[in-house]
Amino acid sequence: MKGQLWRNASAPLILTTIAFRPLAAQDGRAIRTDTGYATVARDVSAEINAGRLTGVAIALVHRGRIAWEDGFGWADEASRRKATAHTPFSLASTTKTFTTAAMISLVASGRLELDHPANDYLGPNKIRDDQGPVEAATVRTVATMASGLPTFFLMYPENEPTRQPSVDALLRTYGHVIAPPHTHYEYSNLGMAVLADIVARQSHEEFGKYLEQNLLAPLSMHDSFFDTDRSGRRFMATRYDDDGTPLPFYVTATPGSGEMYASAHDLALWAMFHLEDDRQGAARVLPDHMLDTLHRAAIRTGPDQYYGMGWEIWNPPGGRRVIFHGGGQSGVKVEFVLIPSDDVACIVLSNRHTDQKFIETVRDRLISTVVQGWHGLPASSDPSIPLRSAPDFVGRWRGVLRAGGKTEAALLVLRPDGSGSLALDDGEPYPVQGLGVVDGWLTGQSKGAIQAPDVQREVADNVEIDLASRGGHLEGELVAWRKTGARMAVLPFWIRLDRGGG
């Protein structure tokens, strides 16, 4: 479920004017657009006219130049403001590429050490386990999703009274590791919030200001801003619900994980920076070896798949190495792919989360115009082993889940036939569906009412278990979640269960 979350009324007719403009190359020559782009533009416009999309922006980079960029549909339908290649869109998790770049810039300047404990740079609340602060959770492990920090996502619409918490408050409630550092990949928005907090503390600047001064301005990314720059919001693409209804502006609990806004044009510049293309007038804000550190595979996430520092990496034997990081949340679908061997990058931005397969198809069609034999990105998960094929998990397991210093009883029953049930706080047991073992971790989905303020406010009564066997007990996380077109919440609780009990 988590991998899917993070990776991841009828509309009026929209008449989109498609202008095929030769784009000025750096050396003054025109870059030719071709019929492949015209076909993509026609199909994107058709999806918008059919009401399945609202606004889309595209950019394709080839050999250090923008080969094509354009926008379609609406940045804001109510005000008839069109989407263009210079419209800032919400980037969701593609923000992570900016957060880790800000972090590595402090490493390059000697103000931060990758292999020092992240806790050395945090406030009063630390990354911890049952014994206290976890020193093995280094800055490097936080950046590579290997610190043991849990999954997390929470929205704060501006028309609601509850406000975005500080990172210090988040760590107090959710900062318990669910696996020893270095042992387990866990996609953690909380970890990226921790990195942004470290950047702010070590630079003595607000994180968005540091990004602007040290990354965005030097790279001429004038359409880009972080969530704290309110002046940019009037230009950004409005986010829309799955049915095309505009969403109220919202922030998340973890800005460093998902609150950059940038245009397709600016992301093309960002891509050329990461591809180490030389651009006239572009400042080199990081040495190439530091960029290579960001892009280096650090922890395995699936077959031939890895996570670096804010980047996903696909490195198939005998195939092309691909570096990418998409984004998806309510009102957001982003594709951002770099293919270093071909000096190619592709950006597709949408202000709706719907029509995902179509957006991915657009990505692949564009890449295919400049990369021979391109067949798309791989699936993002390992296969699951049925519970009945993993008998060590079978039995009655009783224990507690914990968050923010509070505990709640839990009873998990796993049967030889592959079925199971979960009861929380000595309440009614609910069936656990989809039980299986993925990369040594037991997973499954159930229901339950966790007595925690965030869970109750979000009405997050779906739960997922993610448990590993350690020393005769099961330990990991119980995740309360909710997902609709307009709302997402993913709230992790550390849980430990021992075999036996009543």
Structure in words:
The chain is of the alpha+beta class. The protein has a domain at 385-499: Quinohemoprotein amine dehydrogenase alpha subunit, domain 2 (Lipocalin, Beta Barrel). The chain is built from 12 helices and 29 strands. The strands form 5 sheets. Strands 9, 11, 20, 21, 22, 23, 24, 25, 26, 27, 28 and 29 form a 12-stranded antiparallel beta sheet that branches. Strands 3, 4, 5, 13, 14, 15, 16, 17, 18 and 19 form a 10-stranded antiparallel beta sheet that branches. It has a 3-stranded antiparallel beta sheet with strand order 6-12-10.
What low-confidence regions span 5 or more consecutive residues with pLDDT below 50? Answer: 1-33
**CATH classification, class level of the domain at 385-499:** Mainly Beta
Q: What's the end-to-end separation, in Å?
A: 30 Å
Major sheet description = 12 strands, antiparallel
CATH homologous superfamily grouping of the domain at 385-499: Quinohemoprotein amine dehydrogenase alpha subunit, domain 2
- Structural class by SSE content: alpha+beta
Binned, the helix content reads 10-25%
Mean pLDDT: 90
What name does the CATH topology of the domain at 385-499 carry? Lipocalin
The proportion of strand residues reads 25-35%
By DSSP, the count of extended strands is 29
Shape: globular
From the coordinates shown, what is the CATH architecture of the domain at 385-499?
A: Beta Barrel
**Gyration radius, in Å:** 23 Å
